[in-house]
Amino acid sequence: MITSYDIIKSLVSTEKGTSQEKQRKYLFRVSTDSTKIDIKRAVQEIYKVKVQDVNTVHVPGKLKRVRFKAGYSSSWKKAIVSLCEGQKIEVA
Questions:
Q1: pLDDT on residue 61
Q2: Domains in the chain: how many in total?
Q3: What pLDDT sits at residue 84?
Q4: What is the widest separation between alpha-carbon atoms in the chain?
Q5: Is 63 helix (H, G, I), strand (E, B) or coil?
Q6: Domain extent at residue 40
Q7: What is the structure's pLDDT at 91?
Q8: b/e burial code for range 50-75 (CB count within 10 A of at least 16 → b)
Q9: How many CA atoms lie within 13 A of 86 on its CB side?
């Protein structure tokens, strides 16, 4: 059985992500086969907040080179979660 902690892998803390916290939007790295409904339930269960909207983006892997060999970094899925008015996730 898949749990909420399997769906939500981590909270992404980048410059763009922290600037969106003022608008009650948080970025999460999620499993690639999860749906918006799964992500909404998982965030509400883990962080005990009310989620208003979920947007998802598939982030493709980038081309990386090490000496003469070329390869790709892993592709991943990003979720942008908007919270309802007055809700907040405490980020340490």
A1: 95
A2: 1
A3: 95
A4: 52
A5: strand
A6: 4-83
A7: 78
A8: ebeebebeeeeeeeeeeeeeeeeeee
A9: 1
Residue 91 lies in a domain: no
Quick check: helix, strand or coil at residue 26?
A: strand
Structure confidence at residue 1 as a pLDDT band (50, 70, 90): confident
Rounded mean pLDDT, 20-39: 95
Strand partners, 25: 82
How far is 92 from 11, CA to CA, in rounded Å?
11
Specify the CATH number for the domain of residue 40. 3.30.70.330
Examine residue 33 and state whether it is found in any structural domain, yes or no: yes
- Residues in Cβ contact with 77 at an 8 Å cutoff, skipping those fewer than 6 apart: 29, 30, 31, 32, 34, 56, 57, 58, 59
The tokens describing 91, both together, are 């980020």
